[in-house]
Amino acid sequence: MKGIDWGGLHRKYSANSYNPADIDAEISKLYANSDVDSKKGVFEFVLKPDKTIADDRLLSKRVFDDTDKATKYEQQNHRCAICGAEFVLENMHGDHITPWSAGGRTVLDNLQMLCRDCNLRKSAQAL
Length: 127
Description:
elongated; about 130 residues; about 40% helix; mainly alpha; two-stranded antiparallel sheet; single chain; about 10% strand; DNA Binding (I), subunit A
């Protein structure tokens, strides 16, 4: 695959022991996951033995899944976290409380549901 520093991965992880079948299965699973935006990061994610929360970023999991958005929508009583107005789920956006660009994770605790207008206004202020 183009763009992967194979030499760097070899230098970092060649001393570790791996089960090839396990590695292959984990790579296949991550490649099939539609939430994994960066296929290049899959290899380092799988090889890294001491994964931390920050390692999710290797996969660029940036999008909240529909289940998390529906759960947070119910927790917020169908209301926008900023303006407080009530909306149907289809008219709301899942938003990172701590921005993804600032290291925020794509997890339920870092999710807020915003109406379209508040989300766009919030994004414009960040620029």
